Structures are given as C-alpha cells and as structure tokens.
Amino acid sequence: MKIQSSSPKKPLAVKSNTSRDLVERGKLEYEWATSLMKVIIKISKKYQRSKPLSNFNLGFCLHITKETSVLIMAAKALGAQISICSANPLSIQAEIIEFLRYNEINVFAKKDPNRKEFFENIIKVSNTNPHVVIDDGAELHSIIHQRKIKGVYGGTEETTSGIFRILSLQSTTGLDYPIIGVNNAKSKSFFDNRYGTGQSTVYGVLRTLGILIAGKRFVVCGYGWVGRGVSSCLRGLGAMVTITEVDPIKALEAHMDGFNVQRLEAILPKGDCFITCTGQKDVISRYDFDIIKNGAFLANAGHFDVEIDVAYLYSQDNHPNQLRPNVESFNIKGKKINLIAKGRVINLVGGEGNSPEVMDLSFSNQLLSILFILKNYKKLGREFHQVPKKIDDQVAHLALSSFGIKIDKLTRDQVDYQTKAYLNY
Ligand code: NAI
C-alpha cells in the first residue's frame, strides 16, 4: 500500500521545467524508498483513518533524503502540518525538496546552502511553533531552547551525537520539554548505525574514490555501532582493518572479533584510509598530520565535521587540489593528505545515506514516538526519555513480519520458570 501523493500525471503546479523534472525525479525516489519501507507504511495505514496528527504542527530537522520523504508523507497522511529543514548542509537532495514542496510541505532548505542560510532555515522551522520537534543532531532543539520558544509538547532525537547534546543541555540549563532518544532504541541503533551506516559509509568511500578496497589498510577510529558496521563491511571487501579505541571493552571486543587493534599514533604512518566513527572532536588532530602516511585518505562517518581537524588543513593550504568531486588534496609540509567530503558525513555527502530498509526501522520508531508524545506529554517529565520497550519491540516484530520471518514465544511454563528461577534448583 502506498501513501497517497499527488500524481505526476496531472499537470504540475511548479514554476519551471527544471522544477518539474526535479518533482518527477523526487517522486520516483520516494516511491522506490516506499516500496522498501514496509514497516512505516503499515503503521501509517493503521492510523490513516483516525488521523491522530490532525491539528498538530511538526518541526523536522533531518537529512533531506528519499527515506525522510517517506516519514514526512506518512506524518502528513496522519493529518500533521509539517515544516522541515536539513540536519546537514551537504546532505540535501534537491529532487526531494521539490517533491515535498509539491506535496505542500513547508521546506526550508536549498541545495548547497552557505552556513548563514543553513542556520536561518533551522530558525525558520523553530518559528513555525511546532508541537513536536524531530531532530537529528539536536541543532533544532538547541535553537528552540536558546530562543525560549514556547508551546513545544515534546521532541525526539535521531542520532548518538544529538543525544550527547540533549543530555548536556539537560544537566546544564534543563530541558523545556520531554525528548525521546530514538537513537537508543535497539531496533534503531543495532541496525541503522551498524548495518546501515556501515554499508553506506563504505559505499560513500567507494563512490567518491572508486578505489579497490581489497588489500588496502583501513583504519577505523571508534568501535561503537557505526565503527562495528564500517569495519565488518570493509573486511568483507578484503581490506586489512585496524581499529583504534579509547574504551577498553570495545577495544577488547574488536580484538576478539578478529581485528587488528592499535593506538592511532602507531598506525598513522601505515594506514591508506582513515574513517572516524566516534562522535568526538579532533580524533585525527593537527599533530597527527606530521606522522600520517603520505597520500592517506581521510573520511568521517560521525555526525559532526569535528572528528578530523579540517580547519587546520585549510589553514595550512587554503587552495587544496580538487582531485575529484568531494576529494581535496592538501599539501602539508611536502606531504599529500587527501580529505573526503570536507570531513562531513561521508555516507550522506559521498553516497545516498542509509538504505531504505534500515531507515524504515529508525523512522518507524520516530513515527511511533511522535504519537506516543502527543498522547502522553502531560505525564512525561521535561527530561530525556528512552523509547518505550513496547515501541521498540513492535518495530522489530513488524520488521520481522515484513521479511516473512516468524519467531517463537515463551510458553506460560517457561515464563514461570524464569520468574520463579530462585525456586528451580
Ligand atoms: P557509539 O557511542 O556506539 O560509538 C562511538 C565509539 O567511539 C565508542 O566506542 C567510543 O569509545 C569511541 N571513541 C570515542 N572517542 C574516541 C577516540 N578519540 N578514538 C577512538 N575511539 C573513540 O556511537 P555510534 O552510534 O557508533 O555513533 C558514532 C557517531 O556516528 C556519532 O557521531 C553518531 O551521531 C554518528 N552516526 C552517524 C550516522 C550516519 O549516517 N553517518 C548514523 C548513526 C550515527
């Protein structure tokens, strides 16, 4: 079942042939993603009659991709008024902007905005007085808090780095409304961050560089959900993979998973390509460029462009050689250092972002969390909340059923055995 969208067969009320082409392309992309996002479509179908989002304004700050258009159209089908801006200046897909505009969504975004335009668009969404704020990276939440915008019932946060910011906001000034950490749902991070970002990061590197992965030394910084996914995809393609970590448990896990684990300093002179996946700043710092291998490639999969000291590279060579689209080569003290996608999320800038099947899980959690907030916001404290287990399990069950997989249930006897375990000896 497809969500209704305006048919491209009727004449399009758009300004120019270029816009019309973009709408057509956007619609195809939307339909392609819809065909693979069965869980959110099922949820949307369940609520389409009752329209529980009628009379509510939703403010979104997400990557503007085909998968996001499925979430937006699903929320619209449930009656919501929607405004959206982009969570990243380089991940914006022009055809999706035009497709959403054609479907009467308030889109505050343009392809390749400058820094000022990017932030102005986030402010414009904050000015629409959203009842629920759906964010990826907590940029919109931060602006709403700074500008003391009232009337927000609650919000959600899509990514690990955004949750760090929410928790820091909570412990300093406090939160003005409850925020659900969608990222932390198991049915989100186990799959989106690991399998989704793992694959799409490697695809982003491949599409940008077109190099052979097999036989190259890749260094993956961080062995959290994203790092695990990236390293296992690279290994599958024949790369030699080294992991750097700061957490002893994760480092031990990487070792037992069969990866080479080293200090960054030791592997800098040997790595062909470095991919940061940590959510931390200066993971590859200015001092590391002194010993890094000549000709190394640097890419980042973390949410913010702070993991590689990009500012230092530009300060040392402000006219880098453009080797290919999205690949700049810096001449630093006679050495070539190649930066991919300006150190921004490689999977979204160099590739297409995560695949529809994993975004289906993430955005189903988003949609159910929005409904949960609107039903329960009076009872929820103005603090950070995890996604309720019921929602997490519901998404996993729906996903299994969309793949045609059935699983077993505990018998009553087995439940008793567990709950009365202390008697069973
Ligand atoms: P995580 O918390 O599971 O893993 C991060 C890992 O990095 C941890 O194991 C931590 O110990 C390690 N780490 C921190 N500082 C380090 C350092 N200096 N050197 C080496 N290791 C270090 O986080 P997750 O979920 O893997 O996310 C990582 C980043 O990716 C975040 O910024 C998150 O927002 C982002 N993300 C990006 C996505 C994308 O589409 N590009 C999708 C999902 C998450």
Description:
The protein has 425 residues and is α/β, with parallel strands linked by helices. The protein folds into two domains: 17-188 and 354-402, Adenosylhomocysteinase-like (Rossmann fold, 3-Layer(aba) Sandwich), CATH 3.40.50; 195-349, Rossmann fold, CATH 3.40.50. It has 16 helices and 15 strands. It has helices at residues 17-36, 38-47, 66-77, 94-102, 115-126, 139-146, 160-172, 186-209, 225-236, 248-256, 264-267, 310-316, 346-349, 356-376, 389-402, 412-419; strands spanning 57-62, 81-86, 106-108, 132-135, 154-157, 179-181, 217-221, 240-244, 260-261, 273-276, 297-300, 321-324, 327-332, 335-340, 384-386. The strands form two sheets. An eight-stranded mixed sheet has the order 9-8-7-10-11-14-13-12, with helices on both faces. A seven-stranded parallel sheet has the order 3-2-1-4-5-6-15, sandwiched between helices. β4, α6 and β5 (154-157) form a beta-alpha-beta unit. α1 crosses α3 (66-77), α3 (66-77) runs parallel beside α14 (356-376) and α8 (186-209) packs antiparallel against α14. The longest helix is centred in the middle third of the chain and has 24 residues, at 186-209. Mean pLDDT is 95; it is low at 1-11. The structure holds 1,4-dihydronicotinamide adenine dinucleotide. The site of 1,4-dihydronicotinamide adenine dinucleotide (NAI) has 29 residues, from α7, α8 and α9.
